[in-house]
């Protein structure tokens, strides 16, 4: 999405002219059928180029017209949503039994030394998500959080080739043929009719030797302010097709950055109080979609503590990301804001892929991290430039 956003603005707008137009463009919410964002931007880009806009206002009108011409990308509250949509939504509901709820994040944060209600920096959020993913038996996502500004290819491939908990005949929230109801939990949905929990599930078997990878790279790009030497490298990361955004913001103010235009970052601001949502077929889930226009801020105003996110669906996708990093960042000494190495550093403790603890309860007491002393911290700064 970032590449297309930047290309459109570079082709048709000057920085001065764009100030009054780009921020008015409202990105559509995620498609119920989960279409690729890149596919949508490709289609919009094609339609805009056919009309050749002559002014910022004309471009804005064409972009609005482009969104309306792609009905599959429009979310409608009254329309029936697919099963996968409701499964994803259920994972983020404000309920203690939802895997990624605020309750679970707060509890798991205690294991990271954060009290309930205390501010979570990007690194803390990444560590919490890594631990919570171990209890997500619905999908086989592998979450890898780099440490010491170093991404180890050998460790990632070892983790992604490891069988997930779903493929080891563990119960998982499968078999939901209808949208979830507020009275049905994932564990209940996986039960037999005689009231006993299922021990196997046909959807639990792994169909690939590679688990989809969510790669998170926590970084500290300065002391009090972002070091300008890292700005170009940050832009290069946004251009990568595997990029899924950046966690960051300002002190005590979190944003989700999705791209850049010139010397400004494009971000989504989640700070809107919403009523709690219960799962169901007729639920009004508008608050789970982007209803506010993206905003912009100068890159130099970004807090230096960030976490880069990348998603690699396949091993080839990961190999492609590694090649991009080596070409666009590693080969340019002044852009190296993190390291990408082939083998596990010998002075590090042995890498053991994380697994779900064998416990029968939930909460932050699940995991006592064995590598806590080696995890990235919020206070470090990279000094290899």
Automatic annotation (TrEMBL):
Cellular localisation: Cytoplasm
Keyword Ribosomal protein included in the entry's annotation: no
Gene Ontology MF, one: nucleic acid binding
Gene3D superfamilies: Ribonuclease H-like superfamily/Ribonuclease H
A Gene Ontology term for the protein's cellular component: cytoplasm
Family as reported in the entry's similarity comment: Belongs to the peptidase C54 family.
Functional description taken from the UniProt entry: Cysteine protease that plays a key role in autophagy by mediating both proteolytic activation and delipidation of ATG8 family proteins.
Protein name: Cysteine protease
Organism: Oncorhynchus tshawytscha (Chinook salmon)
């Amino acid at each position: 999405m970032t590449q297309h956003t930047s290309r459109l603005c570079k082709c048709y707008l000057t920085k001065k002219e764009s100030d009054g137009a780009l921020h008015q463009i409202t990105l559509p919410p995620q498609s119920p059928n989960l279409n690729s964002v890149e596919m949508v931007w490709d289609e919009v880009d094609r339609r805009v180029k056919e009309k050749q806009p002559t002014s910022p206002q004309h471009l804005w009108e064409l972009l609005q017209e482009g969104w309306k011409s792609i009905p599959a990308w429009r979310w409608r509250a009254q329309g029936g949503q697919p099963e996968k949509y409701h499964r994803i939504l259920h994972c983020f509901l404000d309920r203690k039994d939802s895997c990624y709820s605020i309750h679970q994040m707060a509890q798991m944060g205690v294991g990271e030394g954060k009290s309930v209600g205390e501010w979570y920096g990007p690194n803390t959020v990444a560590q919490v998500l890594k631990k919570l993913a171990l209890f997500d038996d619905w999908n086989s996502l592998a979450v890898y959080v780099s440490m010491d500004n170093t991404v180890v290819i050998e460790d990632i491939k070892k983790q992604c080739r490891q069988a997930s908990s779903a493929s080891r005949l563990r119960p998982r929230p499968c078999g939901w043929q209808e949208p979830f109801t507020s009275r049905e939990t994932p564990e209940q949905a996986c039960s037999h009719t005689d009231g006993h929990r299922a021990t196997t599930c046909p959807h639990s078997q792994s169909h690939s030797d590679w688990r989809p990878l969510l790669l998170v790279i926590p970084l500290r790009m300065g002391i009090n302010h972002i070091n300008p030497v890292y700005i170009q490298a940050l832009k290069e990361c946004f251009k990568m097709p595997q990029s899924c955004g950046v966690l960051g913001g300002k002190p005590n103010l979190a944003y989700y950055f999705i791209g850049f235009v010139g010397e400004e970052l494009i971000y989504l601001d989640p700070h809107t109080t919403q009523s709690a949502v219960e799962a169901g077929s007729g639920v009004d889930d508008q608050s789970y979609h982007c209803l506010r226009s993206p905003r912009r801020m100068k890159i130099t105003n970004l807090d230096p503590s960030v976490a880069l996110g990348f998603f690699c669906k396949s091993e080839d996708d990961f190999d492609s990301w590694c090649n991009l990093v080596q070409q666009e960042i590693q080969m340019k000494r002044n852009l190296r804001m993190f390291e990408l190495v082939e083998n596990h550093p010998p002075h590090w403790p042995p890498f053991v892929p994380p697994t779900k603890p064998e416990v029968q309860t939930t909460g932050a007491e699940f995991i006592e991290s064995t590598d806590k002393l080696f995890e990235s911290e919020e206070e470090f700064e990279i000094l290899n430039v």
